[in-house]
Amino acid sequence: MKNCDYSCRTAEHLLSRRRLFASLAGIGASAVMPDFGLFTSPAMAAEMTRQQKRMIVINMAGGLSQLESWDPKPGTATGGPFRAIPTSVPGLHISELLPRTAKVMHQLALIRSINTKEDDHGKGAHIMETGRRKTPAQEYPALGAVVAKALDAGGAGALPGHIVISPGGGGGRNADSAYLGPKYGSVTLGGGKPPQFSERPQGLVEDASICANDIRRKLNDRFALRRRTAQTDAYTQSFEQGLELMRQREIFDVTKESQADQDRYGSHDFGRHCLLARRLIERGITYVRVTHSNYDTHCENFNFHLEQVGEFDGPFATLVTDLAERGLLESTLIVVLSEFGRTPNINHLYGRDHWSKAWSICLGGAGIQRGAVIGKTNDNGTEVTERQVDGGHLFHTYLSALGVKSTGSFEIAGQKMPMADPAFEPIEELLI
Helix, strand or coil for residue 192? Predict the structure, then answer.
């Protein structure tokens, strides 16, 4: 295991984030992020913008092979045909399929000792999304909903703080926030475009739209005096959020980025989606998840990873570099995960099957030690030999890296609901 000792690298003794947002809430915050123009110092305003916590998750859906990515075993019976190459961290090697990512590994860290003991796609994804195992007794909110609520600084009409970018996504709201309420449910985008139906109808002039919404608000307020419920509040939040989304729809349009940036990220979906993730994070969206799929390689594992990981490598490395150069990586947690890994043993179709007993993820930024490697597997990658962790440990670690007390609770209808599974704890040696 490798630990790195770095200084804080943040502005000394600035206002705490929670105190700042609490004070801004009293005087009115903007729809996307606090009005940092309230400060007389432009430098302080820029610094507070950079320090707003955010998270990007890249979901390698289907189950990325750890052996063809973060934990290669070349020259072994299970290693496959690809070499391991050195990275920008001395002594750390990853798959040769990730040459550009290898050059930015000093900005990142690896966890090579995950054992979730769940080889089913749906159940594995649930563990990685919620930090908990499925149970009929309780629905738990997705990571994005927890992060969006824990870091929420906006009012009822603020833009969505929980965005999922996936090929084919058109702007629909998803029911993945459980007891946290629909405000924190994800909105699915795709193609690097704004959500569908986010433009005002051509036949409706702006003055008429404003008038109609003023009337709606007055009627809502009158109704709420006698019959206000959580459901009516949810409707109000949805309407106000929808109006704000229409007003700022260009935030979701990746074509507003320079042509040079579009070329650097690539013209395929994943490139556009990584650029969109950067755009959203820069404009104050709290949580963005990008999907890259499908890594369920039961056959032709090596040919598929050669192509698919090759597509991932460039845009991901570009995203990490851009966040670092723009001063955003210090406050943005970036995680590359799957629902599980792939079997060390190669099947008769030259594929790798589902494998949850010894696999890896990559993460970095925010409160993560750069260049760290947590855990270890044996020579053939068949079992964890050092610092085994589960999805619950990962969930706690993400929240802690974002400055959230992962052992804390949300108060829902007078009941305390733990943010993360109390049976687990953060991976402390990975945190700064």
Answer: coil
- DSSP conformation class of 173: B
Tally the domains of the chain.
1
Locate 95 and state its tokens.
Answer: 């798959």
pLDDT band at 166 (very low <50, low <70, confident <90, very high): confident
Q: Determine, yes or no, domain membership for 9.
A: no
SS3 category, 384: strand
What is the bridge-based pairing of β-strands 108-114 and 359-365? antiparallel
Give the integer Cα–Cα distance in Å for 380 and 344.
7
Amino acid (1-letter code) at residue 156:
A
Which is it for strands 376-377 and 384-386: parallel, antiparallel or unpaired?
antiparallel
Sequence-separated (6 or more) residues with CB below 8 Å from residue 242: none
Matching residue, tokens 């589960």: 390
Residue 410 lies in domain: 17-430
Closest CA to 131 of 423, 428, 429: 423
Instruction: Determine, yes or no, domain membership for 10.
Output: no
Q: Is residue 3 part of a domain?
A: no
Query: Each residue of 316-360: pLDDT tens digit?
Result: 999 999 999 999 999 999 999 999 999 999 999 999 999 999 999
pLDDT given for residue 237 in this prediction? 63
DSSP character at residue 39: S
Asked if residue 2 is part of any domain, the answer here is: no
Query: For 143, what's the count of Cα atoms within 13 Å in the CB-facing half-sphere?
Result: 31
Euclidean distance between CA atoms 432 and 323, whole angstroms? 18
pLDDT score at 173: 75
Domain holding 114: CATH number?
3.40.720
Residue 23 tokens read as: 């004070």
CA gap 76, 121 in Å, rounded: 27
